[in-house]
Amino acid sequence: MASKAASISTATGTDWTDWDTWLTAQGGLTAPHAEIARLALQRVHDLGITTHAGNGKPFNDGWWSQTIAIEYGHQHGLREKGQLAAGDHAVTASKKVVGSLDELLDRWLAVVSGREEFDGVALAAEPRVRSTEKWRYWRAKLADGSSVNVDISADRVAVQHAALGSAEDRERWRPFWKKLLGEL
User: Three-state SS across 44-73?
Assistant: First the structure.
């Protein structure tokens, strides 16, 4: 059993093979992602799952239903690793760092300052920066239609590059973002 399937079993108190068998019986092999997630949510409610079986904390039924649908899709070849519900792909990379939110944002801005392109792909518009009490955000759209979201927390800078066309694109960008994060 894959580690994500094991996490689902632990969280729901229901073995992954039971989830898999039930979803397949409900037509999951031919259903779109949204329908599989809806079915998973229905079953969570039917089973009366309100707390995380592994730790007793409140159960986030929407998040876990999506996780179940994604894992089902991966295991049955309905979606590739890194493929989002809309069919596009994303890659993530992160780095643990030390500093205040503003210091970490300033360090990220210093790394990307003056860039008009990323790995040969031009910016489509000026990047945006936003701040909340607990987070700092940097957002950029690239000319190829993809988007880059950088989330800065108290101890981590995380990059998500979404709207990629394929798994190959995902693997192309992963080392680029890791290298850029290494400059922090």
Answer: HHHCCCCECCCCCCECCHHHHHHHHHHHHH
Please name the helix (run of DSSP H) or strand (run of DSSP E) that holds residue 93, with its range, or none: strand 89-96
Q: What is the CA radius of gyration of the chain?
A: 19
Reported as type and span, the H/E element at residue 159 is strand 156-164
**Environment class of 129 (CB within 10 Å of its CB; exposed 0-12, middle 13-18, buried 19+):** middle
What backbone torsions phi and psi does residue 114 show, to the nearest 5 degrees? Answer: 80, -5
Q: Output the pTM of the full model.
A: 0.60
- Alpha-carbon dihedral sign for residues 105, 173, 84, 146: positive
Most confident residue range from 30-34, 70-74, 78-82, 156-160: 156-160
